[in-house]
Amino acid sequence: QGVLVPGLGTFAVVHELINSTEEVYVVRRPVFQLDMDMSCLGELVFPTVMIPGDIVIMPLDYWWLSQTNSLPPDVVRGCVEETILLYSFQLRDRQRPAFAFENIGILSCQDNVLCMQFHCSCIAGLERQDTWVALLLT
Questions:
Q1: Which residues span the domain enclosing 23?
Q2: DSSP 45
Q3: Structural domains in the chain (count)
Q4: CA-CA distances (angstroms) from residue 34 to 3, 12, 25?
Q5: How far apart are CA 50 and CA 27, in angstroms?
Q6: What letter would DSSP give residue 44?
Q7: What kind and span of H or E run contains 125?
């Protein structure tokens, strides 16, 4: 499954088949596919991530988010949209702030490469059986 954050990109969980000399592993790992206005990125590059077509992508659930913080869904939507807009303006102005997603990871820019770095706890929470393989892949 995946979640589309409008103006930013899509977070998804993919299953990946890994062949080793002794075993075949199937691990679940998080991925992020950037979907920002290219004019915001300027000279920045970012890794190409393709989310398989069989993964269901859902829009960000503002109602569910509102239940976690007691704010109305329209206020949550406005906060998310304004935050993404501010981040895109900062990138356009050649500022390079990190964008932290609680319990997920950090979207940051290093050496003009914009990339998503997932927290180890996020990866381990998705893949409990072969955690070390998922950590190495991600």
A1: 2-136
A2: B
A3: 1
A4: 12, 11, 27
A5: 17
A6: -
A7: helix 120-126
Token pair, residue 20, equals 């080793």
CB atoms within 10 A of CB 40: 17
Q: CB-based contacts of 10: which residues, under 8 Å, 6+ apart?
A: 2, 3, 4, 32, 33, 35, 51, 57
User: pLDDT 10s per residue in the chain (138 long)?
Assistant: 899 999 999 999 988 877 777 887 777 889 999 998 887 788 889 988 889 999 999 999 999 999 988 899 999 999 999 999 999 999 889 888 999 998 899 999 988 899 999 988 888 887 666 655 555 555
Round to whole Å and give the CA distance between 77 and 112: 29
Q: Assess contact for 126 and 30: CB atoms under 8 A.
A: yes
Strands 105-110 and 99-101: antiparallel
Give CA–CA dist 98/58, Å, rounded.
25
Whether the pTM exceeds 0.85: the reply is no
**Among 9, 82, 101, CA closest to 46:** 9
